Amino acid sequence: MFQSFETKSAPQFGRSRVEALRAQFDDLGIDAFLVPRADEYQGEYVPASAERLAWLTGFTGSAGVVLVTRREAIVFVDGRYTTQLKEQVDGTVFSGGDLVNEPPYLWLTHQDGGSVKGLRLGIDPWLHAGADVRRLGKAMEEIGGSLVILAVNPLDLVWSDRPAEPIEPVTIQKLEFAGQDAREKIRKIAATVSDRGAAAVLVTDPSSVAWIFNIRGNDVPHTPHPLSRAIISAAGTAEIFLQAAKLGAEQSAYLTQLATLMEPSELLGRLSVLAGEGGRILVDPDLAPLALTRAIEAAGGVVVEAIDPARLARACKNTAELEGSARAHLQDGAAMVEFLFWLDQQAPGSVTEIDAVQALEKTRSSIGQSMQNPLKDISFDTISGAGEHGAVIHYRVTTETNRKLEAGDLFLIDSGAQYVNGTTDITRTVAVGAVADDRKRFFTLVLKGMIGISAARFPKGTRGCDLDPLARIALWKAGADYAHGTGHGVGSYLSVHEGPQRIARLSTQELLAGMILSNEPGYYRPGAFGIRIENLIYVTPAAAIEGGDLPMLAFETLTWCPIDRRLVVADLLSAEELDWLNGYHAQVREKLLPLIDTPAVRDWLVAATETIG
Ligand code: ZN
Ligand code: ZN
Question: Fewer CB within 10 A of the terminal residue: the chain, N end or C end?
């Protein structure tokens, strides 16, 4: 199984580990140390060898940072993790901080002068990007303290049983899925570098490296990129920094014709050489660790801040990537149907949230086998929330919170898969037994928002923030809303969360043809229930509109899976919305029926896609 379930961790180790860390402070000339939940590659998922925050505190959430001073240890987390934090850390050692409203750099300036005056705060320059360091540096200046960039990480010195760094095998992403030769991508990036008058670009995001070179890996959970970095020069030469131990003979031969292969440990040396030639080097300040930008500057080079040149190109999928994704979604839809069929056969009160996660992973894996396109991984830990757990937006079931799906519950399941041809992400909310009318009403309002985005037509130049209200307007009319964005970008057998495209209040990125996005409005009633409906969609040129005078864009749907008809109040849908829903279900039936053999499941699918209204 790709998903494991945590039990409450025994937090007793916190005190001794924090004391061991503090014991290093004098030698290093610091009074405090910051441990972020980040690795040297600044990724969403980190390998076990970089789970420093979890090792020190016991907290295993996906975002957070602990500030250890001589007297205090404060773990800063966001709202989704405050409960988990209390359960996982020793409250006599750690206190909680607010990562969103008062992150460490603000917290430091809010302390009364005496307690932090002259504080020397140590950081590991590999674990912080430049933008983060600037904020910390300013805060330290304000309180009359100093930021100490350490050459060694004091936590690593005391972490005796630290797991080895991952050296999982690299695979070649075939041209039939990638759709564009790596040489061509390198050439285009080199042209960008040359346009900016720079000597080279340092690509620090492993997903960008994977995309540029058409390779994939398995070093971290759920995102199939190998931990690696690259340098591409204005002249078009490339160097890739990746442990040779991850390469077989074929992969090694393949990469050698594209780039010079180097060990990650050689990167600092190479940067010094490039910078020393008076080199201007493009670096994305939000992604690159301070250690790398400092190496460029220390050698006399110039850091030119620029957005990762692969980011936008990677977001706009080509035909092969879109076709691959469409096929991956058909297969994933069939797995979802098998799962929803199974769920419907279970009596209320007989299945738990964890049972559901495992059943879904099983259908994905068996359909992957029968369709000869194996499930490579899940694309994130499944959110499986019944009743009040559905209202916890990023709920992650543990053996302690695990609860049965009872009659009257709404059950929300948000999950995704990694296949070699595409990445999926789907949420369905289903009725368990008979459900109260009020819940159906909110389900239908959420559905109206989801249809609003799916059916949108919009002119070129439209940004994610322009479309976001379409998903909310029905809820707003009912005096309700949801506290998350409507959609995020999704990679092509890469990260399920990919920028720069989003559908969200603050997203000013223009929506461009080929971008894959999620469409996932919701509604959450704390302590009672949660609703979310999520399909993946992609931006495509729209057919000409008669009488119109602008070229328009639209969305094409990728996700095919029934939306629970039992929760739809047809009277609340307009004729157009009803048409959309019935048309969607007709396509779900047409596309998925040929992939399903079992007669009972076929019957279920037919019933689940009957016309409404
Ligand atoms: Zn999702
Ligand atoms: Zn999503």
Answer: N
Q: What does the DSSP 8-state code read for residue 8?
A: P
Q: Is the CB of residue 233 less than 8 Å from the CB of residue 257?
A: no
Q: Which of 57, 103, 54, 100 is nearest to 79 (CA)?
A: 100
3 state SS of 102: coil
Supply φ then ψ for residue 85, to 5 degrees: -60, -45
Q: How far is CA 568 from CA 438, 581, 612, in A?
A: 11, 10, 9
Q: Are 66 and 28 in contact (CB under 8 A)?
A: no
Task: Return the number of other C-beta atoms located less than 10 Å from residue 303's C-beta.
Answer: 22
CB-based contacts of 216: which residues, under 8 Å, 6+ apart? 170, 171, 173, 210, 224, 225, 226, 420, 493, 494
| DSSP reduced 3-state for 76 | strand
- Pairwise CA distance, residues 72 & 77, whole Å: 16
Topology given in CATH for the domain delimited by 10-158: Creatine Amidinohydrolase; Chain A, domain 1 (3.40.350)
Under CATH, which number does the domain 316-601 receive? 3.90.230.10
Which has the closest alpha carbon to 457: 444, 470, 474?
470
pLDDT digits (tens, 9 = 90+) for 271-298: 999 998 789 999 999 899 999 999 999 9
Residues of 406-424 as b/e, b for ≥16 C-beta within 10 angstroms?
eeebbbbbbbbbbbbbbbb
Q: If you write DSSP's letter for every residue of 359-377 in order, what string do you get?
A: HHHHHHHHHHHHTT----E
Model pLDDT, residue 131: 82
Confidence of residue 5 (pLDDT cuts 50, 70, 90): confident
* Residue 267: half-sphere exposure toward Cβ, Cα within 13 Å: 25
- Taking the centre of ligand 1 as the mean of its atom positions, its distance from the CA of residue 416, in whole angstroms, is 7
H runs (alpha helix) in 425-528: 437-454, 464-467, 473-477
What pTM, to 2 d.p., does this model score? Answer: 0.95
For residue 169, name the pLDDT band (cuts at 50, 70, 90).
very high
Q: Which residues pair with 216 in a beta bridge?
A: 171
Q: How far is the CA of 507 from the centre of ligand 1 (A)?
A: 19
d(CA 69, CA 301): 35
Question: Among 89, 91, 92, 70, which residue's Cα sits nearest to residue 23?
Answer: 70
What's the rounded Cα separation, in Å, for the pair 7 and 104? 29
Q: Which residues pair with 539 in a beta bridge?
A: 555
* Domain-wise residue ranges, the chain: 10-158, 171-309, 316-601
pLDDT digits (tens, 9 = 90+) for 562-607: 999 999 999 999 999 999 999 999 999 999 999 999 999 999 999 9
Give the mean model confidence (pLDDT) for residues 314-328: 98
CA of 299 to the centre of ligand 2 (A): 42
Q: Find the 85 Cα to ligand 2 centroid distance in Å.
A: 24
For residue 370, pLDDT over 60 is answered with yes
Which position has the token pair 């999704």? 490
Q: Which ligand is the nearest neighbour of the Cα of 417? A: 1
Span from the CA of 519 to the centroid of ligand 2 (angstroms): 7
CA 131 – ligand 1 centroid, Å: 29
Closest CA to 321 of 451, 447, 214, 421: 421
| 424 CA → ligand 2 middle, Å | 9
DSSP 8-state symbol, 79:
G
Tokens (6 digits) for 66 = 């602990």
Q: Do domains 10-158 and 171-309 have the same CATH topology?
A: yes
Q: Tell the CATH topology of 171-309.
A: Creatine Amidinohydrolase; Chain A, domain 1 (3.40.350)
Q: What is the mean pLDDT of residues 331-345?
A: 98
| Cα 402 to averaged position of ligand 2 atoms, centre (Å) | 22
